[in-house]
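Reviewers of the previous submission asked for a worked example of the structure-prediction workflow described in the proposal, so we include one complete record here. The input consisted solely of the amino acid sequence. No template or homolog information was supplied to the procedure at any stage.
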Amino acid sequence: MEANTFETGTIRQVHRYLTDTGYHVSEYAIRRWVKQGMIPAAYSGSTAYISVTNVRRILDNGTPAPIAS
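From that input alone, the workflow returned the following structure tokens.
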């Protein structure tokens, strides 16, 4: 049986998922990291979609995701 995992979503969805799983981070902080380019995002209109893994990397290690070249 495969576990149901959440990997990518809007900033609000990722924030809710992380707070529900025990991480303490504000939605504003995630938005700021996206705006600063620390977290890569894909946009559909004005909605940013981000990866939970990239946010966890910053929270766990204090380092942003490597930028693909």
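The two ends are 37 Å apart (CA to CA). We consider this example representative of the routine output the project will generate in years two and three.
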